[in-house]
Amino acid sequence: MVSAGAPGPVLALLAHPDDAELWAGATLALHARHATVTIAVPCRDVERDAEAREGAAVLGA
Questions:
Q1: Backbone angles phi, psi at 54, to 5 degrees
Q2: Neighbouring C-beta atoms of residue 22, cutoff 10 Å
Q3: How far apart are the C-alpha atoms of 58 and 2, rounded to whole Å?
Q4: Within 10 A of 2 (CB to CB), how many other CB atoms are there?
Q5: HSE (CB half, 13 Å, CA atoms) of 51?
Q6: What pTM was estimated for this model as a whole?
Q7: Which residue from 11, 22, 27, 31 could staple onto 7, CB 3.0 to 4.6 Å apart?
């Protein structure tokens, strides 16, 4: 049975650094308002990894 309460914690495993914002941003941000959200992506390069960290921070993850 699914609870009607607030969203719970999430571990999002994504293939590319910008996938969190592009494909799941609203859902992750909603969950982050109520619980811990962790986003994991493979390392790419210094620039894209930094962008992924910045995007996660905007989502509250």
A1: -65, -40
A2: 10
A3: 28
A4: 4
A5: 14
A6: 0.80
A7: 31
For residue 1, pLDDT over 50 is answered with no
How far apart CA 2 and CA 28 sit, in angstroms, is 18
Instruction: Please write the tens of the pLDDT for every residue from 9-57.
Output: 999 999 988 888 888 999 999 999 999 999 999 988 999 999 899 999 9
* CA-based torsion, 10, 13, 18, 23: positive or negative: negative
| Predicted confidence (pLDDT) at residue 2 exceeds the cutoff of 70 | no
Record the tokens describing residue 19, joined without a space.
């996938």
Q: Tally Cβ neighbours within 10 Å of residue 33.
A: 10
Q: Which of 47, 48, 40, 46 is nearest to 15 (CA)?
A: 40
Query: What is the three-class DSSP state of 13?
Result: strand
